[in-house]
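task queued by scheduler; priority normal; single chain, no ligands, no partner chains; default sampling; output format set to structure tokens
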Amino acid sequence: MKTFIIPLLAFLLLLGCTDEKRGPIEGGGAPPKPVSNLKVENLHGTAKITYSIPDNPDLLYIKAVYEPRKGLIREAKSSFYINYIVLEGFSASEEYEVKLYAVNKSEVSSEPVSIKVNPLTPPVEEVFNSLEVAPDFGGCNIKFLNNDETNIVIGVITRDSTGDWVSSDNFYTKRKSASFAVRGYKAEERTFGIFIKDKWNNFSDTLITKLVPIHEELLDKTKFRDARFPSEPKNYSSSWTIQMFWDDNLTKGFHTLQNVGLPLNFTMDLGVKAKMSRFKVWQRTGTYLYGHGNPKRWELWGSDAPATDGSMTNWTMIGSFESIKPSGEPYISTQEDKEYAEAGEEFIVPLNAGSYRYLRWRVREAWGAAEGSPGGFFHLMEVTIWGNSR
């Protein structure tokens, strides 16, 4: 895999580069005294200036005027109730001049007081320097650190059939660390570009990398088989069999017997040895949504030679997974929750997981029953699995 850095494309740099113009100061009355005793705290892409507030009964706010990026004039205001102002959006770690004004209720400004600030490395550069890019199923995997938990966009571009750069994906986040995948490409060498943008329209450079995506396919459900052991839960009824778990019919599903207890295991045969990349499950909806036997926390284990006694011998954990309710509401399901579940919940399998033919679900907690509950059971309507069986 070849990786190198080039300056961000010119058309990206032009985005959002508009000037803010200051209008004339209007009003009457004597101008207030300026702020004094200024002190600077330099932060990542930000500067905090503290000061002594002038003694003026008509004082309304303190205003800072600065140029965080060449050609862009920005103003920040702070109430007279507090003795500091925070300036954000600096594009580089270098020296900037800031002018501070005290402004009264007639919008009359004091004489400016100038001070120099020198912000630390902006978050877009910090995140950019942390990027790790690797081949993934159908595309690439991008890991990053965002220590200041700044709102950022990680933009991914690639070349189209004519060689022009086109947008592939945009990942919006303020998480401290995470990874995400860009998919949909064949297992052929492809060039990707990754850059960072913040809410102030500051851009990092572009990281250019050439890699070959890992082959990804939709695993053939007609090859899936019931591989449960005698110790594993049986079907609830002939209308809720394990075969209905992979029949591409969301009106029917798999439901174990009730009161089998948690955790519970059940085993399926994929019909081929495959390295899973991701999978999607559909809950039982209606009044059962985020409740009843819909699983909340579970593990997937893989094996090529399961122990004949049904034990966990010869099984390797593929990953741990958790169903998330978008709203976080404990007692009701919002429209967003319903739409999220009805679209199917997708889960990413760790890239370092192995290839296996047999898959064991180990359900630890259901939305309607905690781990250790003797009344626990399981139901889902459908599962779809992607991976590489080559």
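post-processing summary
- The chain has three domains: 2-13+123-214, 36-117, 218-388.
- DSSP finds three helices and 25 strands in the chain.
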